[in-house]
Here is the input.
Amino acid sequence: MNKSRLEAFSDGVIAIIITIMVLELRIPRGPHATDVKSLIDLSPTFISYILSFIYLGIYWNNHHHTMQAVKSVNGAILWTNLHLLFWLSLVPFVTGWMGENNFARWPVTCYGIVLLMNAVAYGILMAALIRHEGKDSLLAKAVGKDWKGNISIAIYAVAIAISWLNSQISFGLYILVACIWFIPDKRIEGKIKQREANPE
Amino acid sequence: MNKSRLEAFSDGVIAIIITIMVLELRIPRGPHATDVKSLIDLSPTFISYILSFIYLGIYWNNHHHTMQAVKSVNGAILWTNLHLLFWLSLVPFVTGWMGENNFARWPVTCYGIVLLMNAVAYGILMAALIRHEGKDSLLAKAVGKDWKGNISIAIYAVAIAISWLNSQISFGLYILVACIWFIPDKRIEGKIKQREANPE
Amino acid sequence: MNKSRLEAFSDGVIAIIITIMVLELRIPRGPHATDVKSLIDLSPTFISYILSFIYLGIYWNNHHHTMQAVKSVNGAILWTNLHLLFWLSLVPFVTGWMGENNFARWPVTCYGIVLLMNAVAYGILMAALIRHEGKDSLLAKAVGKDWKGNISIAIYAVAIAISWLNSQISFGLYILVACIWFIPDKRIEGKIKQREANPE
Amino acid sequence: MNKSRLEAFSDGVIAIIITIMVLELRIPRGPHATDVKSLIDLSPTFISYILSFIYLGIYWNNHHHTMQAVKSVNGAILWTNLHLLFWLSLVPFVTGWMGENNFARWPVTCYGIVLLMNAVAYGILMAALIRHEGKDSLLAKAVGKDWKGNISIAIYAVAIAISWLNSQISFGLYILVACIWFIPDKRIEGKIKQREANPE
Here is the structure.
């Protein structure tokens, strides 16, 4: 089965998610609509938006990199991919909820849960891809022991627990994970270059 | 006529439908905006969202599979495809209406009607494709007697009728149909593999 | 210059316009949210939605057909295409306004103006395409005297004027134009087939 | 790394931004919903929408032209492109804010800041592309001294400062920059034609 429509559909969904998120930045209305204060009141929502934008950028980036190492897809991959898109689609909701309530406890906890589920869903997608491509595939070698994925899940779990003590620290941990992932997955790029330089 | 733009357009519309549906998950506002209770109040909407997400995933998946077995399209196919997209576009409305009103009678009935019309529209699209491809085509053989489509329509009809007695049972029936379809259409995949293995 | 990105961008914009239009179908809220009456109250909006969906389908269809007869694009085509997309993007606004106000005079007039401007914008795009392709091109021969486009513009103008006497008649005329266009542009399809059968 | 998915994703995001912007044109509601006055009240929003539509059209156009001169992309390009999309995604917000408040001081200032950041982000993307393609590349020669980009940034800065004295003049300056850019980037098109006519 051809991978191009799966790529196009995922691109479409991620592009829409990343863009509708900005709809949560609601235009100030009422008597003070044009005060700078009304803009400052939006700053927690804006900060949340920036972080979520980066997260979605990371997911799109990694999805892009991963799919380049993949030759074809099957039914299981289509569904694990949809499963990932489902959890990504919840990002705008938790982003807006967290931002509008100034990083209150429950919204920060839920933001973490959605990030955690995204990480898990991404792991499941990778597993389905590797099962399809084979253990000796380029992808399997490139991913190897997915320490980045595992460490992210661990940090999310800590951040979710800490959100009950101090939600600011949790938010800092979410930023930390974004920093870890910010660099695109060199492993796959490296392996592809190796293959090109040295085709077996 | 080339099928790639029809695929791209359908992908785009389905991707947007699946994503704007999440806008019906409205961020809790008001004095209790950060209570967990406000999240629990959203659970019927969330459950409806999950089911509709799966339905749209199934339609995208089957559309994907079907189009792979098709070589070209004509004007009738373009319009029967738009007809399907029309009914799919109503899914977010009935999903939100059903979820916000906790599976009340009329919303559940209408949800069923939209699902039914989607199934009918999909059947019409398949008929137009088979008419275009020919009775001896790969697609015609793969689809054969479309028992899944027929049984779905029958269950929807029952669910719509039952919604006047007990809307919970109707919702259960909608879940049942999703389960029947969850497995991607093996028939077409099987036939494609046969053709590849044994080109006539 | 390559035409594929122009096609992809136009598909994307039209797909989004056609889908966000359904957001104007607002979920009934308030004490009577689950009554069938609240659904009946939506019927003018729903009818407007159906007509606009068909119009956008026609534009997408004709765009699709036209672009198949085109070999490349230039800067002027990119901008006349964006100009068309601009007027198409106003369709959801006038559709919702007309539907919510039960076909009141001003909304019906404005709906007609937007349709008229779309027809004009489409004509400009066609002219830019023909100027680029040449007077002896497949496209120029296929379009010939664009009686359908001209008659549409005439009917829109009549409908806009009549909307001040009776907006129902105007709406009927909008339906009439949709019927005229419903059949995809056989001229271009016919010419393409001729060319394939008889390459000069 | 292949450039096609980056193009598709950018097309998707820009298409969505350009289309959701129209959602800020809110359907008039209330007792005077069908008066022509309610439409006139929307005119500042409508004028803002037209300008932003043209700006997004310019960015899409230039993005299109630039990418045609590019052979491949790398991680840095993916991220500088996402950075540009981030600033583009803020255009609907400032457009709506400016339009609803009739070109009040703060919204006009912020509109200018977002345009300025878009111009800066576009410059960063161009720099990343040229670094990747090489100083002797087609793109580097075509862009040369980016006087258009530099003059735009200068005018934006002036407009932002002037917005504190007279926001109408600022808006006029934003229109001026749009006029400067309206003509697609002839430099790149010219260089591509040269290359085709005279391949080294």
Observations:
- The interface with chain B takes residues 7-8, 11-12, 14-16, 18-20, 22-23, 25, 27-29, 33-36, 39, 50, 53, 57, 60-61, 64, 68, 183-184, 189 of chain C (CB under 8 Å).
